[in-house]
């Protein structure tokens, strides 16, 4: 999957746009984007627990104008529990940068996930930190005509667990929907939006538009899981 993302970046990594009539919004370089967008993070007091819901704040003006295409991968596996411990469902999500505030995306994802999947707050949640650090492979380079130069946008690397019994689709639908909802309105998910078991391989006649959930086939020990997924 990471190879697909890198191929995507080589083809779609440069996005060109034209300025809009909003003169008050000025695109920033990588560091300034993250600092200037802090005010657009949804405060905890706002009711995001309802349907339908879609993230669409000030920063999305820039996203739609210059970097509306993202590549997303979502994989999971059931980690076999040690003696006396329950199994855990481990998710790994990667998304190329689009200019959204990273901390805001991560926080909104967690809160929206709890509502969509009807679960408690994950006891393990690393988003661009810890065992899921920022990855340069997920950066995109965009020519910003408002600034007249190329800016870099960083992506999302997220790992989290479900630690209780899970439904037949292993939360695939609600996780995929959450990714789409916390990403700016109008974003084009170029690699689709589908969560898959880490060892699943698409059949030769697989329809690229197929989003049918594929549940995990039993639980795996650490040595059975690709290193990039643990």
From TrEMBL:
Region spans: Disordered: 204-230
Signal peptide: 1-17
UniProt keyword Signal present: yes
Keywords, ordered alphabetically: Signal
Protein name as catalogued: Uncharacterized protein
Organism taxonomic ancestry: Eukaryota, Fungi, Dikarya, Ascomycota, Pezizomycotina
């Amino acid at each position: 999957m990471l190879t697909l993302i890198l191929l995507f970046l080589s083809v779609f990594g440069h996005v060109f746009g034209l300025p809009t009539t909003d003169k008050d919004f000025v695109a920033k370089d990588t560091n300034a984007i993250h600092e200037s967008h802090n005010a657009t993070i949804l405060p905890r007091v706002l009711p995001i627990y309802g349907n339908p819901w879609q993230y669409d704040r000030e920063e999305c003006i820039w996203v739609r104008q210059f970097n509306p295409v993202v590549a997303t991968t979502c994989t999971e596996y059931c980690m076999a529990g040690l003696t006396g411990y329950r199994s855990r469902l481990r998710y790994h999500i990667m998304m190329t940068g689009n200019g959204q505030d990273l901390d805001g995306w991560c926080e909104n994802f967690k809160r929206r996930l709890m509502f969509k999947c009807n679960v408690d707050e994950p006891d393990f949640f690393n988003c661009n930190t810890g065992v899921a650090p920022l990855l340069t492979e997920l950066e995109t380079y965009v020519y910003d005509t408002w600034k007249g130069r190329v800016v870099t946008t960083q992506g999302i690397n997220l790992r989290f667990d479900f630690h209780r019994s899970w439904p037949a689709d292993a939360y695939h639908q609600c996780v995929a929907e959450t990714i789409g909802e916390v990403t700016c309105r109008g974003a084009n998910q170029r690699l689709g939006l589908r969560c898959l078991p880490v060892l699943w391989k698409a059949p030769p006649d697989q329809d690229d538009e197929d989003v049918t959930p594929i549940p995990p086939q039993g639980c795996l020990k650490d040595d059975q899981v690709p290193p990039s997924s643990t």
